[in-house]
Amino acid sequence: MTEASRPPTAAEHAAAMVDYIQEGRRRADEIGNRGPVRFQSGTRLADDILDAYWRHGFYVFEGVIGQRELDELRTEMAHKLERAPIGRGAEVDAQGRPALGLEFRRPTFSFIKPLSDPVGGTNLVGGRHPAKMAEPQPGESAPEEVIHMAYGMCQTMQSGLRLYGHPQLLAIAENINGADFTPFNDAIFIKQPGLGGSVAWHQDGLTHWQSPHWNEGIHGFNFQVQLYPTTPGNCLWVMPGTHKLGKLDIKAMVAENGGCERLPGAVPLICEPGDVTMVNRQMLHCSFANTSPDLRISLTFGFHRRASVLGANGKLGANEEDVYDEQRIFDRSAVIAVAVDARRQHRPDEQPYVYQPFVGLEDDYRWCAETYENVIRDYNLKDLGI
User: Fold this and answer.
1) What is the pTM of this model?
2) Which CATH number fits domain 10-382: 3.60.15.10, 2.60.120.620, 2.60.40.1120, 2.60.120.200?
3) Phi first, then psi: what are they for 222, rounded to 5°?
4) How far apart are CA 253 and CA 241, in angstroms?
């Protein structure tokens, strides 16, 4: 291997990011596009927030998750990671106990090599990550593999289920996708300091790019709830306005940039703990290998317009040939109804969100042991990916 072709060390990668980060910070400051959640009246989001989201394709809501809830989420997340398998395919955790997740039908954790790009330049995930990211060399003491993502927050963390019923976040979803909005899926991104892998540049949507009804919101959006500070070295980077441009030739964009992954014009979504980002799924976005000293844990969950999902062929789910009919949508949406009630029971002084598709059915979807078994367990087999 020649000097020019060898992968960069972690230190070299971090050094190469310095100027890019500085420029990204400057651009983020110019755009702004952040602030507390503000409603104009009732659950109607302030017009300037809606305008900013649709103009740029993202928004950073500051201070959404209070300290009490943040502590609950951090505690259960730490427990979840402690109970993770010791490696890919293992059935025990680091203390030799049966690992968390064996009782569910879909994997609860995914593993990758440190600082690697597991999907870039492959046909995985619908081939939507066509260009490979740099894969820095981790230090000699790095483990063979690290947890990259965790799944099923609603069935493994009661705080995660309650977060799914957060009244402000659900009201925002209603503003973007209508009162009959549907779920997408959820996943937790874990970027350990000096070890976390990258997610190559991509646009999320897979199904509707050629639709005669295509528009800038047809593939929905994702929230990311930040448990710890997100910094330019570990956070999500977005390309403002690209949600309006249709399907992009990402591979050509990287090639035109000299093969360098540091595409010009990107903005880092820097956050404090408890901040929540909202990103249009058609937005071009990525995250770089985490050669920074900062931990990132982002609880990610998204929502769709019902019209985008009904009758669509499934993508990104357990059964990608599924056609999403009314019953499938109802069954997956029931998780929201149970989450709303779980939060109501835990926070009786908070005004709960009213999810219109389940008005009049609330008593059938109370949070209890029975609804855990009938609605929540293995709910992610019914995710609605488009």
Assistant:
1) 0.95
2) 2.60.120.620
3) -125, 140
4) 15
Q: Print pLDDT tens along the chain (386 aa).
A: 444 568 899 999 999 999 999 999 999 999 999 999 999 999 999 999 999 999 999 999 999 999 999 999 999 999 999 999 999 999 999 999 999 999 999 999 999 999 999 999 999 988 999 999 999 999 899 999 999 999 999 999 999 999 999 999 999 999 999 999 999 999 999 999 999 999 999 999 999 999 999 999 999 999 999 999 999 999 999 999 999 999 999 999 999 999 999 999 999 999 999 999 999 999 999 999 999 999 999 999 999 999 999 999 887 655 566 899 999 999 999 999 999 999 999 999 999 999 999 999 999 999 999 999 999 999 999 999 99
| Cβ-based neighbour number of residue 213 at 10 Å | 8
Question: Is-contact 349 127, C-beta < 8 A?
Answer: no
Q: Which two tokens stand for residue 92?
A: 């025990």
- DSSP reduced 3-state for 9: strand
Q: Which residues of 223-244 are buried (b: 16+ CB within 10 A; e: fewer)?
A: bbbbbbebbbbbbbbbbbbbbb
**Is 299 within 8 Å of 163 (Cβ atoms)?**
yes
Do 193 and 297 meet the contact criterion of CB atoms below 8 Å apart?
A: no
Q: Are 337 and 365 a contacting pair, CB within 8 Å? A: yes
* Core vs surface per residue 282-296: b (16+ CB within 10 A) or e: bbbbbbbbbbbebbb
